[in-house]
Amino acid sequence: MALYELFSHPVERSYRAGLCSKAALFLLLAAALTYIPPLLVAFRSHGFWLKRSSYEEQPTVRFQHQVLLVALLGPESDGFLAWSTFPAFNRLQGDRLRVPLVSTREEDRNQDGKTDMLHFKLELPLQSTEHVLGVQLILTFSYRLHRMATLVMQSMAFLQSSFPVPGSQLYVNGDLRLQQKQPLSCGGLDARYNISVINGTSPFAYDYDLTHIVAAYQERNVTTVLNDPNPIWLVGRAADAPFVINAIIRYPVEVISYQPGFWEMVKFAWVQYVSILLIFLWVFERIKIFVFQNQVVTTIPVTVTPRGDLCKEHLS
Ligand SMILES: *[C@@H]1O[C@H](CO)[C@@H](O)[C@H](O)[C@H]1NC(C)=O
Ligand SMILES: *[C@@H]1O[C@H](CO)[C@@H](O)[C@H](O)[C@H]1NC(C)=O
Ligand SMILES: *[C@@H]1O[C@H](CO)[C@@H](O)[C@H](O)[C@H]1NC(C)=O
Questions:
Q1: Contact between residue 217 and residue 223 where contact means Cβ atoms under 8 Å apart
Q2: Which end of the chain is least crowded, N or C, by CB within 10 Å?
Q3: Nearest ligand, measured from the Cα of 213
C-alpha cells in the first residue's frame, strides 16, 4: 500500500548561549534590521502621514432670496438698470432702479430632504427704446456640509453674460460648485464664512460695488461658483416684452477634501508599516533559522520535547 504524508508538524529546537555572546548580538541586530527598515521604506515612499483625504456629500443648499441685478443697456439709452433685494442699494440707484418680477422655486427631485435645484426666473420690464446687452446677477445661498466637517457658510452664484446683439432672454443651466483652496478640518464647526456676501445693512455705495463684492469673496478659502460654460442668449424681443433671465442652478454632490484626524492618520500609517514588516519578518525568520542550524554563531542546540508528550507521560 502506498503511503502518503497525511500530517506533519515542526519540531521545536532551541539554542542556548550567554546574553553577551555573538548569538545574542546577532539576534539583536536581526531584530533591529527587521523592525526599523520597514518604517524607513514606508516613510520614504511618501504618503506615510495622510495629509488630505476626500469624501462625497451632497450639500444642504438654500437660496437666501437675496438678489442683486445690473442690466447693461445698449448705447442709445446709455448706462444700466439695477435692482436688488437690499433697500439701501435700491435707494442709491435713483432713476436707474427698475423693479423686476421674480419667481423662484427650489426642488427636491429624489425626496431625500435636500434641495437639488433652484428654478429662478426674473422678468425685467423694459421700455421699447431700451435694449439689454448684458447682465450681472448675484444670488446668495446658505451652504452646509455635515458628514465629516460641519461647514456653514453663506455663498453666492455670480452670473455675468453679455452679447453684442440685444437679447430677449438669458438661459442658464449650471451647477453650483464648491471651490476649496484649503482642505476642511475634520470635526468641529467651521463658521468662518457664515458672513453675508453682500452687507445689506450698509448705506454706502462702495459695499454694493461688484468689484468690491467679488474681491472680498475671492479672499475666502472656501467658496461656491456657478459653473455654466454656455449661457444661452436669445434675441428677438417684442417691443413691450420684458427681458427674461431664466436660470436653473443645480446643487450637485461634491467631492470634499478634508484633513484627516489623528486616528485616521495613525491607522493609515500602521497599515503601510505592517504590510512591509510582514516581508521583513519572513525573510529574517529564514535567515535566523539558517544561521542557527548551521552554527554560524556558536550555541548549544537543545531539542524541546513537545508539550503534549510531557502531559501524556505525566498522566500515565
Ligand atoms: C450663520 O449665520 C446665520 C445668519 O446670520 C445665523 O442665523 C446662523 O445661526 C449662523 N450659524 C452658525 C452656525 O453660526
Ligand atoms: C456692514 O456695514 C455697516 C455700515 O458700514 C457696518 O457697520 C457693519 O459692520 C458691516 N457689516 C459687516 C458684516 O461687514
Ligand atoms: C486660507 O488658506 C491659507 C492657505 O492654506 C491659510 O494660510 C489661511 O490661514 C486661510 N485663511 C483662513 C481665513 O482660514
A1: yes
A2: N
A3: 2
